[in-house]
Amino acid sequence: MTAVQAPSSAPEVLARCRDVVQPALRAAVGRLHPWVAEMAAYSFGWCEVGGAPAAAPGGKGVRQALAVLGAEAAGADGRAGVPAAVAVELVHAFSLLHDDIMDGDATRRRRPAVWKAYGTGPAVLAGDALFALAVETLATEPQGARAVRLLSAALADLVRGQADDLLFAARPCTGPERVTPGEYGAMAEGKTGALLGCAAALGAVLGGADEGTAGALDRAGRHLGVAFQLVDDVLGIWGDPAVTGKPAGGDLRERKKTYPVLAALGSPVARGLPGLLDAPGMAEEAAALIEAAGGRTATLAEARRHTVAARALLSAAPLAARAAGDLFRLLDFLADREL
Questions:
Q1: Do residues 76 and 213 lie in contact, with contact meaning Cβ atoms separated by under 8 Å?
Q2: pLDDT tens per residue, range 282-323
């Protein structure tokens, strides 16, 4: 009798997909100008400044996993989605390099950001090179034209989301010009969700999926991206620093207009919140008021709503059973992490 294979856990799914993608990702980066390739490798945690090998912490590899699983969901071998995974991972790295410059963030994954380690101009150049390499990676595929169109549309949404995020910082906490939770959700879909949806859809396209299946995966990934961002917002205020690697209440000290803050500001209980946000050293008091005003509860409820929407889209799509199961496990893992 053949033994039934136990379903993989979400961390196992992520690890399996990383193992499939990493050789191709490293090979792609190796085609860049040596100096630019070093900056790219540093951004991925593969080396130190100067090129000495390193094993710095990298990301979870969510986007590359979605690309591989997208191909498998279409009934293809996961390796068919590797070019999509490489392209999306390159675009994600490009966006982080530029985001850190725009936001003035000096660290990334507990190391100096690329712009601090190499300089602003070189970091911009490295980001541009990663973007160009991503397009080249997809353009050479049999479904290249369709894939590049999908990536271009996701990038347009990402830019709109980033633009809104930058503009939100200058808007007031109260009054008719305040940022609403709805506006924040649209921003999060563009800035975070667009690339997650694109990853799954691109993998499916390279795996031979039709427009309907690729579209369902794209929309599910977008909902996942919003849920991921909302959970991140909760962790940014109430997360354990030992787990997040960030100081408790860091988002409040930086006066970020995250979803818990915006949701709380709609409650009369939080009338004193704008003053607390503007006062140095009051992050703990602000966090308590946000929670009392329902900001934390509202954020987690909104994250669950997007998770349910993503599950519904995946359930309705004609996906290969094992890949669908892996997608569901990944969705739950990312939406419920460390809460």
A1: no
A2: 889 999 999 999 999 999 999 999 999 999 999 999 999 999
Position of tokens 């909902």? Answer: 223
**What letter would DSSP give residue 336?**
S
Of residues 298, 301, 300, 307, the one with CA closest to residue 328? 307
Contact 110, 245 (CB under 8 A): yes
Is 0.85 topped by the overall pTM? Answer: yes
Structure tokens at 201: 């859809």
Residues 39/114, Cβ–Cβ less than 8 Å = yes
What contacts 3, CB < 8 A, 6 or more positions away? none
Distance separating alpha carbons of residues 198 and 70, to the nearest angstrom: 10
CB 331, CB 217: distance < 8 Å = no
CA–CA gap between residue 318 and residue 324 (Å, rounded): 9
pLDDT band at 50; cut points 50, 70, 90? very high
Residue type, 18: R
Euclidean distance between CA atoms 277 and 119, whole angstroms:
32
Measured from the Cβ of residue 110, the count of other Cβ atoms closer than 10 Å reads: 10
Distance CA 81, CA 107 (A): 31
Cβ-proximal residues to 255 (8 Å cutoff; 6+ apart), any chain: 277, 278
Q: 293 near 286, Cβ under 8 Å?
A: no
Please tell me the distance from the alpha carbon of residue 73 to that of residue 327, in angstroms, as a whole number.
9
